[in-house]
Amino acid sequence: MSMELVVVGLGYVGLPLAQEATRSGLLVTGFDVSPATIESLNSGHSHVDDLGDVDISKMIAAGFKATSETATLSTADVIVICVPTPLREDTTPDLSAIKAAARTIGRSLAAGTLVVLESTTYPGTTDDIVRPILETESGLTAGDDFSLAYSPERIDPGNPKFGLRNTPKIVGGFSEQCTEHAIDFYSRLVDTVVPTVGTREAEMAKLLENTYRHVNIALMNEMAVFSHELGIDLWAAIEAAKTKPFGFQAFYPGPGVGGHCIPIDPSYLSYAVRSLGYQFRFVELAQEVSGRMPTYVAVRAQALLNDARKPVNGSSILLLGVTYKANISDERETPARPVARRLLDMGAEVSFYDSHVDGFEVDGSELQQVNDLDAAIDEADLVVLVQPHDDIMRSTPFDRAAMILDTRGKLEGPNVERL
What we know:
The chain is α/β, with parallel strands linked by helices. It folds into three domains: about 5-195, Rossmann fold (3-Layer(aba) Sandwich); about 205-290, Orthogonal Bundle (N-(1-d-carboxylethyl)-l-norvaline Dehydrogenase, domain 2); about 290-419, NAD(P)-binding Rossmann-like Domain (Rossmann fold), CATH 3.40.50. Helices cover about 40% and strands about 15% of the residues. The strands form three sheets. Strands 3-2-1-4-5-6-7-8 form an eight-stranded mixed beta sheet, with helices on both faces. A six-stranded parallel beta sheet has the order 13-10-9-14-15-16, sandwiched between helices. Strands 11-12 form a two-stranded antiparallel sheet. Strand 7, helix 6 (about 175-185) and strand 8 form a beta-alpha-beta unit. Helix 7 (about 200-230) packs across helix 9 (about 260-275). The model has no long low-confidence stretch (mean pLDDT about 95).
């Protein structure tokens, strides 16, 4: 008899999980509250970068369906929560989607079911927030009547080398038996399962991973600023340093940080630390440093134009790549938006080229999108490489540009200045 899995939340985390589960022979149902998402998926159309329409069609052929019907939760062997965890305007965690999912699941939860939270959150969420809701709504007890665990998602959109199956999966249960239940489930989907002490340790592992990246990227961003003032090619220094076979891992500066993981996840840990009466100074400083990079990019653009005796006001500036990461269409927290905003505030005529998006909005207004890249390169007073999509790097006539500000360290030439 096939294991029945319900994935709650069919975004960039839930949908790849559902795909791998169908490949592994599980009977998978996707639960979502968005009618548009449900209709699109059931029609064979994908809305995330890592899966195409063909992938969705294969999932449907294997028995996958998307629904908003809660009845499907009552027959599930495993329920995995993959809902969004954004920040509120005051930068505190917004767990409303997790709480809503837990209430919905709890009302239909059957004895013997494994419930796993994968959404990124602060330590204690699984035990102190999700568990009481599930127990109250269901009348069941975690660890006795049903299993509860946390397993942090490690999806890396656009990564051609590491997907869900070959990326080790951390699991931590509410009890030892819960952990074993989660290990049994994930062992069907991934090559390596890594059990840890409990749910809090699994929650902390996710935040540790992203805080580590956050702090080190911020270090490089700050070094980029003063290296430029000192006349040092930081990119060359990084390449030299990474030849050391131990004790160093290369991180790189950029126009800012984007996506969910780096700009948002460390704030969850900072929030938990503040609740204890402490400040997480490393995270807060890293946020400050990387948060001012878009303005620094605009200032560098201004300096380049000034060297050419051109004012920013009225100059034509072309942004190449406006998503938060190369080769994907995700715009969440992309630094391209504050870069464009600052240049527009300075009076520049800003346009963009990005084959991965249909449009790009800044403060409610659509930025001008160029169709003829060659002509746009010829006409621009300054080209800013924000995101080095493969198609941009292959097809752009960079040598024809008057000036290029390369925020990613990918280009060389007499008309190129690296960040």
